[in-house]
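To the team - glutamine complex, inputs and output below.
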Amino acid sequence: MTDLTKLTAAELAQRLSAGETTSVEATQAHLDRITAVDGAVHAYLTVDAEGALQQAEAADAARAADDAVAPLAGVPIAVKDNLVTRGLETTAGSRMLEGWKPPYDAHVIERLRAAGMPILGKTNMDEFAMGSSTETSGFGATNNPWGLDRIPGGSGGGSAAAVAAFEAPIALGTDTGGSVRQPASVTGTVGVKPTYGGVSRYGAIAMASSLDQIGPAARTVLDAALLHDVIGGHDVRDQTSMTHDWPSFAAAAKAGLEPDAVAGLRVGVPRQLAEGEGFEAGVRERFQEALDVLTARGATITWIDLDTLDYAVAAYYLLMPAEVSSNLARYDSVRYGLRVTPEGANVEQVMSATRAAGFGDEAKRRILLGTYALSSGYYDAYYGSAQKVRTLVQGDFDRAFGEVDVLVAPTSPTVAWKLGERLDDPTAMYVADITTIPANLAGIPALSLPMGLSEGLPVGFQFMAPAREDARLYKVGAALEAALNEQWGSPLYAQAPELKEA
Ligand code: GLN
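Output:
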């Protein structure tokens, strides 16, 4: 019997519709895999075996009763723990929310349920999505399946590791400054940040609302596209949700397999996102090879300068904490989660004792920075200037997209580093976000896919497109993925070292 956990979501869906397996079988296979390897990987914070199997039974029953089920009906999924799930503990990786069972489902969770996709559990993440390594989680780090002593990226390291370790065929993440794409890059998987407003944020626990976007984590471009089709589209409960008429992303990914998919494609490489000190030699080599593959298939490559990107990281690390400081004010010991009540304490003392105990160091650092940046007398100098930079970055992208169809860059300047290695140096961690942050500042869609190995560890290639052109990413992404797979003989995810099953 084939190992159901080794199939892509698309393959699994095909078997389900051919009647060759059931959702209960597929879901059970993934739950067994979680039992076998998650002790070593720690991708999950909560596993909902009972709920997932019930949803799987319902998916099987729906399929038996009616053939017109959704394309991914019966395919199980893992969900980042900052997406609220009714009745299922949701912590956003923070002790502040330990034990909190939301009274409602996020928009994307409603969509998964309507599509008949069983939810295996909730995945580990940096606290409130702040980090690049999943080490700021209040519940312990996640280990990269490619090397258990390495970080899985962050903040969505749990979702990426779950997918890379075959503990889920597909997963959901959120991307504020790279948290779907960078984990994909360092785990040899695919991650997408949709156009801002393309997926409703209703029920996504807010980090920095003007940057946050929910996106798919998968092993293939087609799988990510299929999931994007499920979660995308307008929702009145998110005021930034677009009323755009989105095309089928799965159809776009399939169009990428046609022979001339990238012929004539104009590709721009912003120097600021592809060269310089921080970029490891192996990353630059794989990137150049991927560019050569695109050239060989008829694309033209132009290196360009987007000067404002020199200031993108600085702008992000002012705007983001400003929004964080405001969004995290709601954890006030009254409305959600933790309440610490020292004897004889008044309301204010309860509040500060709760926030002191509930937040980790990184959350506190960002609340302090953000509060400072927004304080009177400093607002214009910091927050105001950063907003201006953001506008300039958007202008730079607009101009660039007048000349090229897509912009590309390595997804991350480095491979996965060792756990603990950068914990004492937050700035080193922040500057490594240079490659992913610009897409969030500009609100444009971006996709990361594996481009090979450096020192035995995965590195990612990133495509960026103009706002609303997410379908373009799936098309060119699928084309490059197919070309690279042909070269390698098998997809990169299939080359990950075998994990010992407990
Ligand atoms: N590494 C970025 C940060 O720490 C990404 C966060 C995110 O996308 N949620 O802010």
